Amino acid sequence: MGGTNIAAGLVDDNCKIIRKNSVPAGRTRPFHEIVKDMIELSQKIIKEEGLEDSDVEKIGIASPGIANNEKGEIVYASSFPDFRNAPVAKEFKKYFPESEVYLENDANAAAFGEMMAGAAKGKSNTVAVTLGTGVGGGIIIDKKIYSGFNNAGGEIGHKVIVCDGLECECGRRGCWEMYASGSALIRQTKEAAKANPQSLINIITNGNLEKINGKMVFDAADKGDVTANEVISKYIKYISVGIVDIINVFRPGVIVIGGGISGQGERLLSPLREHAQRESYGSVDMKTEIVAATLGNDAGIIGAAMLWRQSK
Amino acid sequence: MGGTNIAAGLVDDNCKIIRKNSVPAGRTRPFHEIVKDMIELSQKIIKEEGLEDSDVEKIGIASPGIANNEKGEIVYASSFPDFRNAPVAKEFKKYFPESEVYLENDANAAAFGEMMAGAAKGKSNTVAVTLGTGVGGGIIIDKKIYSGFNNAGGEIGHKVIVCDGLECECGRRGCWEMYASGSALIRQTKEAAKANPQSLINIITNGNLEKINGKMVFDAADKGDVTANEVISKYIKYISVGIVDIINVFRPGVIVIGGGISGQGERLLSPLREHAQRESYGSVDMKTEIVAATLGNDAGIIGAAMLWRQSK
């Protein structure tokens, strides 16, 4: 379940997506309408693949916000206002009575997907960071999703890196996501481009800064634009502050970085590794790896489908 | 093992310390001298209690820095410079051949002690925070100590809350411990007292600000001193920033606050709970409890003695 689209995929035992499809989320509609779309989308894919509903052994659902797997309910998801202790599993069970249904937070499911079949394959401890509209987090400890005693943990975008800094939607000031999200990069670029009219950024966007995207900033920097380079270097520094925090606290085997910006690959990862090398605590031989996510948007689908394989 | 003293305790199956004692650490001495003192101290206590060395079934050692329990070595401890991959377990085994020997980082052992017999008893997920010279952390997940893939995790004092802030010994800028440790409170108080000559703090200390301790600041505040109240309110705010970070990321059942300042009890805890209530992420029914540690310096001894009872 995403704020824009709801996607479904049929996944085999080898974590391969055999067939997938999506529908617009219409996220402000009533719960029963949205869940009906989710079920119909799933049935359509199954049918297109020449299977019966009863062939599906396990169903995994990844939603924003807080999911309670024991109760089969989505407790709260700010982008789906009518989902309040929403009994998603029960609704699915009406149409898939023989299937087991699993629920999980989307960032956690994506982290689990990367561990099962992506960039964190084979690692016991992983923290996945998604630099998107916000900064999402998924924590895997001992090959299990960790989300605290009330399923609400893993909100690494909402730890403060600038005390009394920019106001965040969550109510705090100075959250990491206000500085390290994709949206933050856009905001930082706009401010810098306005302050530096000669910057290539203004030329690339024909003076309409609303057109800016993350890739444009990196492109302008690669062409030698001083302003763009300054923006990126500061932005990467903000990311690195949170990454080193994660290292000092979690020492995961690997940190997986996803979201649009992670497409920059080594351009982003190499300076992050340098920061981590220089700033992480103490003297240790074994270093946390920092890598880009490899599954993209499929991570959530694969992770959700594999939830039943979490070690207990 | 502490930087000032090394303490040992004989602990029974009910987490009770039957007898304990300590010797000066002499922490800059060679490894073999210090470990000899540790062994002799242990033997002395055993003998005083009328027992034989062979009556001791398990031995637990809590050290600063990084301990590798599998190898039985203290990998690195900045306050014990000669401890470099130091084979502590092997040395103990020479004198206690029939005992199992366990090693752990001191903050982790203390957190485990609080879980076994103190403020976090019965909780599966706990984060223990010690506000002392620095800010120490111990993380318990599923009743096990969590310290990452290289035993170096849990350094919650070294996550940044003020980007580009005060320089920390660890090499970063703006670490939580630079603002929330007991030492930070002293520094903040000195600065405020100098800037406000009329403050009661200057009277209490007879103008010698080197005498200040944390309790004096709270006492001055309770007597209505404006400067002291401002210092404390700001200091508690700094603590709360890190506490809410822990809640958003870990959602532990309980956060246990230890160190000298935790002796202030509700004076400290009540505003921390208010901050947490107001600032923690999203809308959840089950809240993380925030409580004071109850075992004090015994937490490390009890936790070390009980390491063998960690669930696998």
Write a compact overview of the structure shown.
Chain A is an alpha/beta fold and 312 residues long. The first copy, chain A, is built from ten helices and twelve strands. Chain A has a five-stranded mixed sheet with strand order 10-9-8-11-12, with helices on both faces. Chain A has a three-stranded antiparallel sheet with strand order 4-5-6.
Task: Describe the overall structure.
- 2 copies of one chain form a homodimer.
- With 312 residues, chain A is of the alpha/beta class.
- Chain A has 10 helices and 12 strands.
- The first copy, chain A, has helices at residues 31-48, 88-95, 106-117, 177-180, 182-195, 200-204, 214-222, 226-250, 266-279, 298-305, and strands at residues 5-11, 17-24, 58-63, 66-68, 73-76, 84-86, 100-105, 126-131, 135-141, 144-146, 254-258, 289-292.
- In chain A, the strands form 4 sheets. Chain A has a 5-stranded mixed β-sheet with strand order 10-9-8-11-12, sandwiched between helices.
- In chain A, strand 5 and strand 6 form a beta hairpin.
- In chain A, helix 5 (182-195) runs antiparallel to helix 8 and helix 7 (214-222) crosses helix 8.
- The radius of gyration of chain A is 20 Å and the shape is globular.
- The model of chain A has no long low-confidence stretch (mean pLDDT 95).
- At the A-B interface, strand 9 and helix 8 of A face strand 9 and helix 8 of B.
